[in-house]
Amino acid sequence: MPTNKTPFLPIFLGLLWFGSFAGLDSTTGKLPSIPGVYIFGDSLVDAGNNNYLAISISKANYPRNGVDFPDKKATGRFSNGKNAADAIAEKFGLPLPPPYLSLKVPFKEKERKSAALTGVNFASGGAGIFNGSDQKLRQSIPLSHQVNDWQDIHKELTSQLGPSEAQNHLSKSLFFVVIGSNDLFDYFGSFKLRQKTDPQQYTQSMADKLREQLKIVHDTGARRFLILGVAQIGCTPGQRAKNSTMHECNEESNMWCSLYNEALVKMLQQFKQELKSSMTYTYIDNFKSVHDIITNPARYGFADVTSACCGSGDLNADSPCFPVSNLCSDRTKYLFWDRFGHPTEAAARTIVDLMLSDDSQYSSPLTLTQLVSS
């Protein structure tokens, strides 16, 4: 996430009433197996790629980040612990997908070969669908570059398995895409952009550009896509703190998120019609998730849905999460890790459980379980 602008990233929350877990195979009681999971996106799912960018300051490889990660290690995840990409891999019994750039350093050939088969994380904090301002300053890795990196891993995988078996492997793997919020932040913060195009046109162009990148990934053999919609980014601690009296959400920001999600849903429907049986997908309505948990937090096990767990000042949102920041004592009760709206590990795990539930109000046209079983 870029720090040279106001990068309050979207809430990444899952909403599930834990009375039962419905995402299991009805005959075996286990999740369907998948051979690999490949991650594209922004800081919501970044596993540390930005650590390897020489001049980027959009990093989280310092405390208090990682306070609940194994060995209390600050890996570059914008979280107190693991993120949703990690949780999905764990649910399917796969290793945590390592950051792609960690596999580019010397003496990592063995790890690279292994990760190519089970999953790689290409996500980058601050990344957008477009090559925005912070990408030009080499602060993050935009989606188009992540897709280029995927093609490098695709070559590695094909070399190991051969073309036919590689195609079979990829057709059963999961491609998880979490991106779009930083493009909206660029629009919010640019008078020139708002003069040039209205919100409807801009969000439609976002969806169109995303389609181009998905098509490239599809053409390499990807068949199963998990797409996360943009959440209510107007309800992050940083946005609420700007309303110093009532701490209410920024409804204008939320409205633009809704416009993008509408364009995204229509694009995915058209994309599926074009590709027919060669592509299946699950869209997760994270916007609705945020609304539901904020209006009834106790039902989902959360006590604080407005302030950040790590930070300072009003709502703990006056500054990012630093080693000297205030830290909440019970991270399982907070939705937000920091002022930007990154989720705590508890929130990330909640949305993954939601993805695997049979509750279709948050997923369409398939639940994640249906997607990996198709």
Proportion of residues in extended strands: 5-15%
| Rounded radius of gyration (Å) | 19 Å
DSSP summary: helix tally: 13
End-to-end C-alpha gap: 35 Å
Can you tell me the overall shape?
Answer: globular
Mean pLDDT: 90
InterPro entries: GDSL (IPR001087), GDSL_Est/Lipase (IPR051058), Lipase_GDSL_AS (IPR008265), SGNH_hydro_sf (IPR036514), SGNH_plant_lipase-like (IPR035669)
Keywords: Hydrolase, Lipid degradation, Lipid metabolism, Signal
Signal peptide: 1-22
Organism: Brassica carinata (Ethiopian mustard)
Give your account of this protein's structure.
InterPro entries: GDSL, GDSL_Est/Lipase, Lipase_GDSL_AS, SGNH_hydro_sf, SGNH_plant_lipase-like. Keywords: Hydrolase, Lipid degradation, Lipid metabolism, Signal. Residues 1-22 form the signal peptide. This protein has 13 helices and nine strands. It has helices at 84-91, 109-118, 133-136, 143-161, 163-172, 181-189, 191-196, 199-219, 237-242, 251-275, 286-295, 345-355, 368-373; strands spanning 37-41, 174-178, 224-228, 280-284, 304-308, 310-311, 326-327, 334-336, 363-364. The strands form three sheets. The protein has a five-stranded mixed beta sheet with strand order 1-2-3-4-9, with helices on both faces. A two-stranded parallel sheet has the order 5-8. The chain is globular and about 60 Å long.
Overview features:
single chain; 374 residues; alpha/beta; 5-stranded mixed sheet; 9 strands; globular; disordered N terminus; SGNH_hydro_sf; SGNH_plant_lipase-like; GDSL esterase/lipase At5g55050-like; lipid degradation
